[in-house]
């Protein structure tokens, strides 16, 4: 009886949308990037960056929830264009990290927008998934799933603060370098997928 009340069609769609969005944003898998890229910052600075990345991610996905199809039609864009552009952006960031050891930004909070908020947290995969999910499930169920998902991501990042104490400065530096290599690999993958799709078409 309880499950019949709780698991209404709306709730089932909400849960499916939530799981899909949570998996595609890969907040747990992205933790090494968040730790490595914010190495050397104070707790307060890191939390500001994390909050900025969460806000960037939810605003970006919300825009595509409300007007994704219209935006793509208006600018004659395809998901392959997003992949190529996102890949180039990530590759430039990865190269800078490998050369300088960090991202140089005028304001530290900018790091929360690029690359943490986009395209690491919300990239082409997340945007594509949301557009597909919108065609499958109730609009309000998807919107609620989006809000709850980013609240959970915020909790994960908030409590990940303890990892800095465990891994220490040297651990953070190692993670930074490894993250740069992985980010570069993801970037190349994005670019290749986009170019292959364009030329095959």
UniProtKB/TrEMBL annotation:
<feature type="transmembrane region" description="Helical">
    <location>
        <begin position="49"/>
        <end position="72"/>
    </location>
</feature>
<dbReference type="Pfam" id="PF01914">
    <property type="entry name" value="MarC"/>
</dbReference>
<comment type="similarity">
    <text>Belongs to the UPF0056 (MarC) family.</text>
</comment>
<feature type="transmembrane region" description="Helical">
    <location>
        <begin position="139"/>
        <end position="157"/>
    </location>
</feature>
<feature type="transmembrane region" description="Helical">
    <location>
        <begin position="178"/>
        <end position="200"/>
    </location>
</feature>
<feature type="transmembrane region" description="Helical">
    <location>
        <begin position="12"/>
        <end position="37"/>
    </location>
</feature>
<keyword id="KW-0472">Membrane</keyword>
<feature type="transmembrane region" description="Helical">
    <location>
        <begin position="113"/>
        <end position="133"/>
    </location>
</feature>
<keyword id="KW-1133">Transmembrane helix</keyword>
<dbReference type="GO" id="GO:0005886">
    <property type="term" value="C:plasma membrane"/>
</dbReference>
<protein>
    <recommendedName>
        <fullName>UPF0056 membrane protein</fullName>
    </recommendedName>
</protein>
<feature type="transmembrane region" description="Helical">
    <location>
        <begin position="84"/>
        <end position="101"/>
    </location>
</feature>
<keyword id="KW-0812">Transmembrane</keyword>
<dbReference type="InterPro" id="IPR002771">
    <property type="entry name" value="Multi_antbiot-R_MarC"/>
</dbReference>
<keyword id="KW-1003">Cell membrane</keyword>
